[in-house]
Amino acid sequence: MTNRNIIVFALVGGAILSAYSILFPTSPTSLGKEVCECYKTARSYTNPDKKLRKVEYCGSLMQDNLNTLHQRGIDKDWSFEEVKNAQNEFDKALEACK
Q1: What digits encode the pLDDT tens for the residues 20-59?
Q2: How far is CA 33 from CA 8, 39, 57, 64, in A?
Q3: 36 neighbors 96 (Cβ within 8 angstroms)
Q4: Whole-angstrom Cα distance, residue 44 to residue 67?
Q5: What is the DSSP string of 9-72?
């Protein structure tokens, strides 16, 4: 690869990552709301097997979103307090789920 190709590749990659973060926000509140919506959908199912599968998926989604939140803290070099605040925001979004 030439230097020009490397620069173009880096610019395109950066643009894709920026677009991804805009289209799929990863704020603690949005991650918690995503899990909330999943559980709301599961509650709406009448078929017990379908409901159980959805609840299992929601549990996995919750763990994935918590992992995303923790990884974000690592990537951004958050302090312990910042990580704890983000966790509290996530928890509040879940607690507000009705």
Answers
A1: 554 455 799 999 999 999 999 999 999 999 999 999 999 9
A2: 36, 10, 15, 13
A3: yes
A4: 27
A5: HHHHHHHHHHHHHHHS---HHHHHHHHHHHHHHHHH--SHHHHHHHHHHHHHHHHHHHHHHHHH
Cβ contacts of 85 within 8 Å, gap of 6 or more: none
Residue 61: left (phi > 0), alpha (psi -120 to 50), or beta? alpha
CA 41 to centroid of chain Cα atoms: 18
* pLDDT (tens digit per residue) in 48-86: 999 999 999 999 999 999 999 999 999 999 999 999 999
Contacts of 96 (CB under 8 A, 6+ apart): 36
